[in-house]
Amino acid sequence: MEILRDLSAFWAMFHVFFLFIMLFRSRYTKKKTIILTAVVMGALMIVNGAGIVVLGFELMGKLFLITCSIPSFIFFYIFSADKKFRFLLTFCLADTSCLWVIVVTLLMDSYLGGGRYIVMFVSRLLAFPVMEYLAYRYLRKPYLELQDSVEKGWGVFAGMTLLYYILLTVMVYYPSNISNRPGDVLPCVLVLILMFFNYATIFSSIYGQLLLYRKQQSERALQEQKASLEAKLENQQRIRKMKHDMKGYTVTLSGLLAAGKTQEAMEYLEQVGMEMDTLLGQFCANPYINAVFVHYYQKFQELGAECTMDIRIGGEEQPYMELCQILSNSLENAYDALKDLEPQKRQVSVNMKYKKKNLIICVKNSCRDDLHVEKGDIPLTDKEGCDHGFGLPTIMEAAERLAGDMMCYTKDGSFILEVMIRIQAAQAKTG
Question: Residues spanned by CATH 3.30.565.10 within the chain?
Fold first, then answer.
């Protein structure tokens, strides 16, 4: 009946890789990942299978860490889009979950099946697909979403899973197979139970972080909608003021024309037109993006800041949701930075223009003398409270959704934020 033991070992090895692939994010194309994974992991399975036949099941169990776990770790790390602790957690999570099933079915076979491997084979045949279904149904989507949204806090969970993997491996296979050490079965069972509850705690904590992230995202979206509505209300107030002032403009213009001062009347009319544009807050033709500019232009004016806006986009269709996110967060950061400066140092400029196949956004504002940010770094917020520190990550996420990128740095006493968006990707998003 040893054939059942060997088949169950191959079945378990296959599902370790399968479970990992469900939670793994490759930096290469799906096709390339599948082909290379099948080749490399297939070769590893063949080597380990030959080792079981030649060296025996118990010895290969002791060598499994060297012959399979470490090579597969190196291979997947090269291919992974996630590095460091996020990758380590994913790898150890898949390994320890499958190892948990392996140990439980091994103990079941020893005490319920008389060590004839029938119970082991049947239970593994059923247990692994059930575990993968539950992982796909309840874990995969929030887990992948969490990897996108949370940058910190992975080290503790990764360390726990790594220690559990080492602990289970040592307890089950050293100095001999656990089925040959009846005195160690109870501690092993207690470790398995403890591992189950600890993993439940980890998943609950991860899910709690995800819910918190979603709430923060929702709150930011509501704040952006509020800012847009306030900008529209301010715009309506400006229009009413402009209608009131038009009577005075008309009287002055009529007087100039009646006196035959045509040139003066033309110059006065041009000045009136410029003032009307300012009152209306017409920075660009897109009403959603323009509302953001109007709102923050007014805030900068109230702050007494020197504000320059060079917006060179027209009324063409734009992915305004992402662009409003980028502009709102960048201008809010600029506003917060200027508030802490002396009035005479408050300067901000916004440039938005097309360059070849890209849309370039550049926000430049004065900053503290002690602030130093290298290109490629994202500075951490020094504000207190849990409602801060999301501006730059949100801008990065919005830019990446449009196949773009973000870069910020300090230069000559100014903080500079540059965002590049691919025009074709942006058009596809709106289409």
Answer: 283-430
- Helices of type H across 259-286: 262-280
Residue 414: how many other CB atoms lie within 10 Å: 16
Assess whether the previous peptide bond of 175 is cis (omega < 30° from 0). Answer: yes
Report the side by side order of strands in the sheet with 358-366: 306-311, 347-355, 358-366, 414-422, 405-411
Is the omega angle on the peptide bond into residue 319 within 30 degrees of 0, that is, cis? no
**Distance, CA of 260 to CA of 386 (rounded, Å):** 65
Measure CA of the first residue to CA of the last residue in the chain; give whole Å: 61
CA dihedral of residues 385, 390, 392, 398 (deg, nearest 10): -170
Instruction: Tokens 């005490």: give the residue.
Output: 111
Architecture of domain 283-430 in this structure: 2-Layer Sandwich (3.30)
Q: How far apart are CA 96 and CA 227, in angstroms?
A: 48
| 145/149 Cα distance (integer angstroms) | 6
Q: What is the pLDDT of residues 92-130, one digit of tens each?
A: 888 888 889 989 998 998 888 887 889 989 999 999 999
CB 401 within 8 Å of CB 429: yes
How is residue 402 written in tokens?
A: 């449009």
CB 10 within 8 A of CB 121: no
Nearest to 281 by CA among 331, 321, 234, 230: 234
Angle at 386 between CA 299 and CA 153, to 5 degrees: 135
pLDDT digits (tens, 9 = 90+) for 26-73: 888 778 888 888 888 888 888 887 887 788 767 777 777 788 878 888
pLDDT digits (tens, 9 = 90+) for 170-218: 888 888 888 888 888 898 899 899 888 888 887 787 777 777 777 777 7
Q: How far apart are CA 164 and CA 158, in angstroms?
A: 10
